[in-house]
Amino acid sequence: MQTATGTVGQRPAPAPPSLRTPDAEPVVTTDRLTKRYGQRTVVDALSLQVRRGEVFGFLGPNGAGKTTTLRMLLGLVRPTSGSATVLGRPAGTSVAQVGALVEGPGLYPYLSGRDNLRVLARYAGVGPGRIAAVLDTVDLTDRAGDRFSTYSLGMKQRLGIAAALLKDPALVVLDEPTNGLDPAGISEVRTLLRRLAAEGRTVVLSSHLLGEVEQICDRVAVVASGRLLVESSVEELRGLGRLVVDADPLETAVAVAGRLLGADRVSVVDGALHLQAAPGETAAVNRALVTAGVGVTGLRQEARTLEEVFLQLTEPGDPPPAETPGRRPRRVGRSAR
Ligand SMILES: Nc1ncnc2c1ncn2[C@@H]1O[C@H](COP(=O)(O)OP(=O)(O)OP(=O)(O)O)[C@@H](O)[C@H]1O
Ligand SMILES: [Mg+2]
Q1: I need a surface site. Which of 2, 192, 316, 319 has the fewest CB within 10 A?
Q2: What CA–CA distance (Å, rounded) separates 93 from 325?
Q3: CATH code for the domain defined by 241-303
Q4: If you take atom 16 of ligand 1, which residue's CA is the nearest one?
Q5: Would the pTM of this model clear 0.85, i.e. be above it?
């Protein structure tokens, strides 16, 4: 596995089979996509791929550059350098096949949900026939005659997604689609987005909330300060767990593990060796320690929540992987390229 810190002989355990084929054709490709505002680089050489039919989460703290990146994918912001390809064409040129909810759809509070969609459909050059279909998709048919202002936040969000679906797009781009929703609202959006993916559409969404992304997405890109930290499936990201080893002598164990994994993945906590390692690396660690004459009396993998992984990756003290020459953002498991 190629990691930010070196190559380990053993590959991590394969993730559970996914409905999505790993080699599915990319719907979005960015190549060193960069945006600078004055001296500030807000998106920094971002290279990633989104595959057809997946729900892809763009995850990062406030100010990470998520909205700016989505706007570049939509052709609303011009990159400073690098490029983005969407549905095989330069970003911003496949407008007819891309539905987006980035700025808020500008819905009129005093119009009904259906009338709002009528206005937007006319504006987008879409026939009125699509309106019933998208209302059905977002499960708002029963309330379509009610004023938008009387909708719950979750219903408003779903109507926004309905608006993004009017053009029957192959790619749906949603900026923070679950922002402000309660667990029931998130669950509704989740069901809706899964349905879109099942129909063969690709969904790219941004979020700063891990819990949501964990529930909704197939794969994620974690970004902070404009840089890609990890691109991975959710399962694989969680699999980058902590390996706790009781070893003697500890100093030798630290040195051996450091050589194998890189010193920044090794620490000592309460007299035990703590390694940042995927489950598939356990055997290689054990073998290296034993070969070096270290007694291993305990070896256990502690699964981490995605939240722990995220906090660790986005910790301000952590040097961003892409900063040092020769270091690359971590691509985990099957997504390794
Ligand atoms: N038009 C602009 N001019 C100058 N700076 C900008 C502009 N648009 C965005 N930025 C800056 O770019 C950085 C990233 O902003 P962006 O909105 O992309 O972040 P984000 O990840 O979407 O954050 P949030 O989670 O808060 O929505 C911020 O520091 C922001 O101030
Ligand atoms: Mg944003």
Answers
A1: 316
A2: 34
A3: 3.30.70
A4: 65
A5: no
Chain region(s) in the chain for CATH 3.30.70 = 241-303
Mean pLDDT of 63-73: 95
User: Considering only CA atoms, which residue is closest to atom 17 of ligand 1?
Assistant: 67
pLDDT tens by residue, 153-165: 889 999 999 999 9
Beta strands in the chain (DSSP E): 26-37, 40-51, 55-59, 81-86, 89-90, 98-101, 171-175, 202-207, 219-224, 227-233, 241-248, 266-269, 272-277, 295-302, 330-331
Question: pLDDT confidence of 13, banded at 50, 70, 90?
Answer: very low
Reply yes or no: is the peptide bond before residue 249 cis, omega within 30 of 0: yes
Residue matched to tokens 């706790």: 244
Closest CA to 189 of 167, 220, 157: 157
Are 104 and 157 within 8 A, CB to CB? Answer: no
Q: Which ligand is nearest to the CA of 77?
A: 1
Q: Which CATH number fits domain 26-236: 3.40.50.2300, 3.40.50.300, 3.50.50.60, 3.40.1620.10?
A: 3.40.50.300
Q: Do 149 and 182 contact (CB within 8 A), yes or no?
A: no
Protein residue whose Cα sits closest to atom 28 of ligand 1: 63
- φ, ψ of residue 296 to 5 degrees: the values are -110, 110
**Range(s) within the chain of domains with CATH label 3.40.50.300:** 26-236
pLDDT tens digits along 73-87? 999 999 999 999 999
Q: How many A from CA of 22 to the centre of ligand 2?
A: 28
Percent of the chain past pLDDT 70, that is, above it, reads 83
Q: What is the pLDDT of residues 280-299, one digit of tens each?
A: 788 999 999 999 999 999 99
| pLDDT (average), residues 17-41 | 77
> How far is CA 337 from each of CA 1, 146, 232, rounded to the nearest angstrom?
10, 49, 11
Instruction: Name, in order, each residue with C-beta under 8 angstroms of 94's C-beta and a sequence gap of 6 or more.
Output: 86, 87, 88, 171
What tokens were used for 195?
Answer: 């349905």
Mean pLDDT on 9-15: 34
The minimum-distance atom of ligand 1 relative to the CA of 68 is: 18
